[in-house]
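subagent[fold] <- orchestrator: predict structure for attached chain, return tokens only, no commentary.
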Amino acid sequence: MNIHQDDRHTPGRTPPGPHRRRLLIGIGLLLAGPLALAAAAEAPLDTEVNEANQAELEMIKGIGPQLSTQILGERVHGPFRDWSDFIARLPGVGPGKARKLSAAGLRVGGQPFSAP
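subagent[fold] -> orchestrator:
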């Protein structure tokens, strides 16, 4: 008789049956699910500065209520043409801040920041 490794019985140990295997797989999936969601939540989503509303802008790390209000106020005068236009029109935003905002997912004209 051919005995498979999984079918052997060790005294004092219950062999893993199909229900137990499913339970262990389910527990593994429950534990892995939140980790996958957390990793996805940390990945920045691209947010176009010329299309985003105030709430969407404030989801970008580094943009709070004050900066989002300034961005929306400047957008009334026309869309931002590029990153240098964005920097020129927003006091307190320089290349360093632009680099951080870009890394967090902000885009101007669909483009990430690249130093001139």
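orchestrator: received. Logging for downstream: Residues 47-107 form a domain with the DNA polymerase; domain 1 fold (CATH 1.10.150.280). The chain is about 50% helix and 5% strand.
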